[in-house]
Amino acid sequence: MAVLRYVAFISEDPEKLADFYRRFLETEELGRSPGGDISITDGFYNLTFFKRRAELHEMRMECGLHHIGLQVDDLEETKNRFLAFNPRGVILHEPSDIHHGEIRIHDPECFPVSLSRRAFGIPSGKKKAFPRLRHIAYNSLDPETMLRFYTQVLGLREVPSSYERRKQGLGNRFAGDGETNLAIHPFYSRVEGHEAKFGINHIGFLVRDMQSIIAELSRVMQIAPRPSSRPYAEFRFRDAEGNALDLSQTKGWEVDISKWETAAGL
Fold first, then answer.
1. Out of 3.10.180.10, 3.20.20.70, 3.30.450.20, 3.40.1010.10, which CATH number does the structure's domain 132-261 have?
2. pTM of the full predicted structure?
3. Domain 2-121 part of CATH 3.10.180.10
4. pLDDT tens-place string over residues 156-196
5. For 163, left (φ over 0), alpha (ψ -120 to 50), or beta?
6. What residues have CB less than 8 Å from 218, skipping those under 6 apart?
7. Which of 21, 106, 139, 181 has the lowest tally of Cβ within 10 angstroms?
């Protein structure tokens, strides 16, 4: 019913971020706005860097990973499911241009979610193998309610690794749409490697040639291996404005029920 296709950032310097992702993750530019916003793509996702300014009128104006968006088949059906989930839910119109969706709703913790029927401006035929964004992770006060929002309103599927955490008495929840793994972690956690950043904590890219990417990144920054106890991703680094990014080649991510994507052997 819905597929994750969009990640929005608020940025002090969108040009600098766009150059960073182009250099290290082979993204291409989609377009720019008169206000200084830049949208890029990995071939499947629209990553939009909004220039921080008062005219954005966002509830949260700090720089960093800000909100996500999904392509949906039917906006009216999605709105109806949203209002059934939250009868007092707010639905806003967005400009429906290269940098936005068509409408905006909010998840149970008041983070925006953009919705569009139009693939967020990504031309057909752009999808490429690697590098590609395949993981989005939130830190949440109530992962269970957040999971219900994404499964009941937007049709994502809870994946087996999430049920395994339930058996272990842990609060981590995971869902997939067939393309991307959505992780919803408890904000308050003592698990090794956890970073207590509320909202979108990090995103993750699947890469085919980890060695060459790490070598290139290591010229300009420190790259940290993820703890061996973590099931996803081998490395973490930060982009030009400090946003956390994971890289994986062999571990990969569970993107749907019984569908685990890696780049090992490819």
1. 3.10.180.10
2. 0.96
3. yes
4. 999 999 999 999 999 999 999 999 999 999 999 988 888 99
5. alpha
6. none
7. 106
